[in-house]
Design a protein that fits this description.
By secondary structure, this protein is an alpha/beta fold. It is built from ten helices and nine strands.
């Protein structure tokens, strides 16, 4: 691995006994359109993964449902055997249908199969961290996670998983999970304009639990705000860089996993997230209001 040419912003955070860079990489965009099928540029996708590791990123987020199986296979091809410092985080609890939907798959037998599928596609003996995906494509949904989460606890006890987390979860489900077994992260939708988890983030920071926002830049509908654009113009930066930098400033337990299929864009994200926002935080905080 080459010496990083960019300083990763944000430092590190512990996921249980694992230490990861707060600036990570989400592999979802490496699959084809709408996260289905192979990438148009396979060599380009492999190059992005190698560049992430070369930049010093030690946290890659994926799922065997992406593609399906596409991103895991790309990760394996690009990076196996994995550097000791690299930690791959995956999720289970949803599958894909032929229409590109994300139907839930949280019965015990489905979760066991998904864990073994992730182990096989990533060529690992143990998964560092597995998130249980809850809710549906519309967002978190109320209801008990006990049966599904207890299944993952059993797999952890069998030595197939090191650490557990939850994704797309309500605050009540996070509390329920913590009452069953320790969790090291929560992965929910959150960004400058969608701050419904503010209270949860602060509670998790006190607990020493990471919060990993998905769609940190708005997802399929990129963030748009006149205030965000104004701050970016003053800083001579892109609005997306400002949005990433704000997330790192929001709380020390926030870990970033922005996705891209471009090495140039990856480097732009890393550089942009290191922006100093001390004079602009109040204006940015007001966006969600």
């Amino acid at each position: 691995m080459s010496t990083p040419s960019l300083a990763l912003p944000g430092g590190t955070w512990p996921l249980g006994d694992l230490t990861v860079t707060r600036f990570g990489y989400g592999a979802m965009q490496l699959a084809g359109p709408w996260v289905m099928g192979p990438p148009a540029d396979r060599e380009g996708a492999l190059a992005v993964l190698r560049e992430a590791v070369d930049l010093g990123i030690t946290h890659i987020d994926t799922s065997d449902a992406y593609g399906p199986r596409v991103t895991n296979e790309l990760i394996r091809e690009a990076l196996h055997p994995y550097p000791e410092s690299l930690h791959i985080v995956t999720k289970v609890g949803a599958t894909r249908d032929e229409q590109g939907g994300w139907p839930p798959a949280r019965r015990p037998e489905e979760l066991r199969r998904q864990v073994h599928d992730n182990l096989k596609s990533l060529r690992l003996d143990v998964l560092d961290l597995v998130n249980l995906r809850l809710g549906n494509a519309e967002g978190p949904q109320p209801g008990s996670l006990a049966e599904a989460f207890e299944t993952l606890v059993e797999l952890r006890q069998q030595g197939l998983i090191r650490h557990l987390g939850v994704s797309n979860a309500t605050a009540e489900q996070v509390t329920e999970a913590q009452g069953i077994a320790p969790i090291v992260c929560v992965q929910n939708m959150y960004n400058l304009a969608h701050r419904h988890d503010d209270e949860l983030i602060d509670r998790l920071a006190t607990d020493g639990v990471a919060y990993v926002p998905f769609f940190p830049l708005g997802g399929f509908t990129p963030l748009q705000s006149s205030a965000l654009s104004a701050v970016a113009a003053r800083l001579e930066a892109t609005p997306m860089s400002v949005a990433l930098a704000w997330l790192l400033r929001r709380s020390p337990n926030i870990l970033l996993i922005p996705g891209t299929s471009s090495t140039a864009h990856l480097r732009e994200n890393v550089a942009g997230a290191g922006l100093s926002l001390s004079q602009d935080l109040t204006e940015l905080d007001d966006i969600s209001r």
